[in-house]
Design brief:
The complex is a heterodimer of chains A (288) and B (363).
Chain A: E1 3-10, H1 14-21, H2 31-35, H3 38-47, E2 51-56, E3 71-74, E4 78-79, E5 94-95, H4 98-110, E6 116-118, H5 125-135, E7 144-150, H6 160-175, E8 182-188, H7 205-217, H8 219-224, H9 227-234, H10 244-250, E9 255-266, E10 269-278, H11 282-287
Parallel strand pairs in A: 1-8, 2-7, 2-8, 3-6
Antiparallel strand pairs in A: 1-10, 3-7, 4-5, 9-10
Helix pairs in contact in A: 4-6, 6-10
Chain B: E1 2-6, H1 17-23, E2 28-31, H2 40-48, E3 55-60, H3 62-73, E4 78-84, H4 95-109, H5 111-118, H6 131-143, H7 146-157, E5 173-178, H8 186-195, E6 200-204, H9 211-214, H10 216-227, H11 230-239, H12 265-280, H13 284-292, H14 294-300, H15 305-312, H16 316-321, H17 326-329, H18 332-335, H19 340-348, H20 352-358
Parallel strand pairs in B: 1-2, 1-3, 3-4, 4-5, 5-6
Helix pairs in contact in B: 1-10, 2-3, 4-5, 4-7, 5-6, 13-14, 19-20
Classes of the chains: A alpha/beta (288), B alpha/beta (363).
Chain lengths: 288, 363
């Protein structure tokens, strides 16, 4: 059966992509941010996952307000990076893991999650940025991807506890998948930021650092928090942090924190990264 | 932030009117009512039950004694403490007899007589004849009853000695007093502030014991500064007429969370055309059309004159008020470049440098 070898969390701020494209990686504004991801990149190089399940939200680029799925699963052979309006980016298309995607959809529906199924869909910075942060800019991505889209823009957005439950279902799907492939799960978004209204520019480094701690040690409390509490603590757009709970729900209750990184502000956002392994995953490390 | 205001003897929420009005836009504010309890502990329990979770506790006079009792009962819940015009000592010799004079006065001649006797020494000497200050205070005393007065005097006479508690207080504490407070003088507050680790002492000039009403602006400003709420208040003052307000053109239902325009049904419906127009700019041919004739491009999406004007003047705050969502309307900046932080500063009503510094912590 397939094996879950780790859980990664990261921001997906579009300015990160712009900074990479403009060659700003080593400028004073960005260097400390990108340097903090080096251990995460080393981790994926060392552990060589075959498939990355990436949980993110589309930002109107593939779903507009005319159709808003609460949860959607990509089941495509290939996912092209979408041009968000600033021109196409020089990144390769993502290879899909179609067979697993359908197995995931089956497992979800049997577990009472009913997702939208997407066989043709382009993907925006929500997945591009996390992939670039962990895998750099290869000629071809060394992993296949399974996108899970979560609506965190148009209210009603799902409950944090529901995201956490979805993670458990994802774990079940991975461990019941007849394959020897190695999986990582990426929860993306956040950390604190607010783009709209009089509180625009709100960041909350204290809450962000607490989140980076609690996502490892106390995920149940984070899952029990209301959406309003996320908005209050992390800003209206920071509420997308609840997507990290899908990743966390896929992991064991007890995890080892391999790396964390926090930087503020990346553009207008508190940005961060975490690398988690299950406590019992020592054999997985050796196998890598 | 949850702030509980605690009034003193014979007082009610009206003494906190100015502070509540100023802070309610940026905090969850509650007023405690001490008209029915006959012990400081019962008053503290009542106040603690007003909200769940961490509290900022602001007490005046007897209310400040209650605030100290709240710290004793639930030290983990009081995250900030403000003590105004108060004391920490237990009953003093002769206090019962002098309080009894007031109780008898209320019993025999009524609350009006009590107000006339009790109020003047409570305020700055120069304000005793100031009807604008004294009439509301007199009306407040008349809202009370001899029975409430008796219960509160009982609570005060039986009050705990809070002095041993002071050195154990670990939360940030503000001690505030009117310079001319004749009832609980400045020296008493200097002692209290010295006994609480790290406490800050603020003296309100030209004020007697009733500082929240005698110098409402100065007391509010001191609280706002101590709570770090000045930037939020500035932003709220701008925002009140923009993003969070439904402006009478709408259903009049305010946003669920103040200052935060959640993209709910109301905003989605209202901003649909505007957001759809902006998303169109993801396509190069639409960007060309926008550049060639912006008004004509906007007309293709049926934008109202108000919406067109907001877009054409790049009034981001107004676009958000009209239901625009930054994820979508940001596409306008793909045609007419502007930094996201400039859009943020515009909405916050702040200068860009100040925005980077105060909101985002840039040096």
């Amino acid at each position: 059966m397939a094996k879950l070898i780790g859980g990664l969390g990261t921001s997906h701020v579009p300015s990160i992509a712009a900074a990479i494209d403009k060659g700003l990686r080593d400028t004073p504004d960005w260097k400390p941010f990108f340097d903090g991801y080096v251990p995460g990149q080393e981790w994926v190089r060392e552990h060589k996952p075959d498939v990355a399940v990436v949980i993110f939200n589309d930002h109107g680029n593939s779903f507009f307000l005319d159709k808003v799925p609460t949860f959607a699963v990509g089941c495509a052979e290939e996912y092209k990076p979408v041009d968000e309006g600033w021109g196409p980016r020089a990144i390769p298309p993502f290879r899909g893991a179609v067979d697993f995607s359908w197995h995931l959809v089956d497992t979800m529906v049997e577990s009472r999650f009913d997702p939208m199924i997407c066989q043709e869909i382009e993907v925006d910075h929500g997945i591009q940025v996390p992939m670039e942060l962990f895998w750099g800019r290869p000629a071809a991505w060394p992993v296949k991807v399974v996108p899970i889209f979560v609506n965190v823009i148009q209210y009603p957005i799902p409950l944090p506890s529901r995201c956490y439950e979805l993670g458990r279902v994802l774990r079940k799907a991975i461990e019941s998948y007849d394959s020897d492939e190695r999986f990582v799960v990426l929860g993306t978004g956040g950390l604190s930021h607010q783009l709209q209204g009089a509180r625009a520019g709100f960041v909350n480094p204290t809450a962000d650092r607490a989140f980076l701690r609690d996502i490892a040690t106390d995920p149940d409390t984070l899952a029990a928090m209301s959406r309003e509490k996320y908005v209050e603590l992390f800003g209206s757009e920071g509420a997308e942090l609840m997507m990290w709970l899908v990743m966390r729900g896929a992991m064991d209750r007890d995890v080892e924190v391999r790396h964390t990184h926090y930087f503020v502000p990346a553009s207008m956002t508190g940005a961060g990264m975490i690398v988690l392994e299950n406590k019992a995953a020592g054999d997985g490390r050796q196998a890598a | 932030m949850q702030i509980i205001f605690l009034p003193g003897l014979l007082c009610d929420g009206s003494v906190w009117a100015a502070q509540v009005e100023a802070l309610r836009t940026v905090a969850d504010v509650a007023l405690a009512d001490f008209s029915t309890q006959n012990s400081i502990t019962a008053m503290a329990e009542t106040a603690l039950a007003l909200r769940e979770g961490p509290l900022v506790v602001v007490g005046h006079s007897m209310g400040a004694r209650v605030a100290l009792e709240m710290v004793r009962l639930a030290p983990g819940r009081v995250e900030r403490l403000a003590l105004l015009d108060t004391g920490a000592h237990p009953r003093r010799e002769g206090e019962e007899a002098s309080r009894q004079v007031m109780l008898d006065l209320a019993d025999t001649q009524g609350m009006a007589a009590l107000a006339d006797r009790w109020l003047p020494p409570m305020v700055h000497e120069a304000r005793v004849g100031d009807a604008a200050l004294m009439e509301p205070l007199r009306a407040m005393v008349l809202r009370s009853t001899p029975e409430q007065h008796r219960r509160q005097i009982r609570a005060l006479l039986d009050r705990p000695d809070a002095r041993p508690l002071l050195p154990t207080i670990t939360c940030p504490t503000l001690v505030m007093v009117g310079r001319q407070d004749r009832w609980s003088p400045l020296a008493q507050h200097e002692e209290i502030a010295a006994a609480i680790p790290g406490a800050k002492l603020v003296v309100i000039e030209d004020s007697g014991h009733m500082s929240p009403v005698e110098q409402p602006g100065a007391v509010t400003d001191a609280l706002v500064e101590w709570l770090g709420l000045a930037p939020a208040l500035r932003a709220a003052a701008h925002g009140r007429r923009t993003a969070m307000d439904t402006d009478g053109q709408d259903d009049g239902i305010p946003d669920r969370i103040p200052d935060i325009p959640l993209f709910d049904r109301k905003r989605s419906l209202r901003g649909y055309r505007l957001n759809k127009m902006a998303m169109g700019l993801a396509k190069p041919e639409n960007r060309d059309a926008f550049r060639a004739d912006e008004g004509a491009y906007l007309d293709r999406f049926g934008l109202s004159p108000e919406e067109k004007s907001a877009v054409m003047s790049r009034d981001w705050r107004e676009m958000v008020r009209l239901g625009g969502n930054l994820f979508f309307i940001l596409k306008i900046s793909a045609v007419d470049p502007v930094r996201i932080t400039e859009i943020g500063a515009h909405q916050a009503g702040m200068d860009h440098d100040a925005f980077l510094r105060e909101r985002l912590g840039k040096k």
